[in-house]
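Before relying on records like the one below, remember that each one covers exactly one chain. Contacts with other chains, cofactors or solvent are not represented anywhere in the record.
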Amino acid sequence: MHTIPQSLLGGVLIGAATTGLLLVNGKIAGISGILSNATSRQAEGWQWAFLAGLVATGVAAAAAGSPTPAALRHPALWVLGLAGLLVGFGTRLSGGCTSGHGVCGLANLSPRSLAATVTFMGVAGLMVFATHHIEPIRQLLLIGARP
């Protein structure tokens, strides 16, 4: 895989989508907030369109032959459920998600977003280390042995 061009393209697409949403609707592209509002009584059509675009992008990538990330190939269902609950808890605790804080908030030089981004990136780094280098944790999460 050519991760540098793919990562660069992904970053450009994320930047374009967040900029487009801000310019067209005057809204911040915080995915957790968009999802929360889309499932409430104040739902607007653009929120469902934005979420559909996220899903469609994943479907299009799979159809184009992009490989599934290793962490999602054979996960235990309980691991995915626990991960979802922890992400949801963190999102509520920090008042936003990685897209709202990490992409939009940092671009706006928000100190609160900087603190949130440093926190979730630090925890993510620790989890990657733990799941790749601490065998009992690897076995617990059923990640399997590295090649």
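The mean pLDDT is 83.
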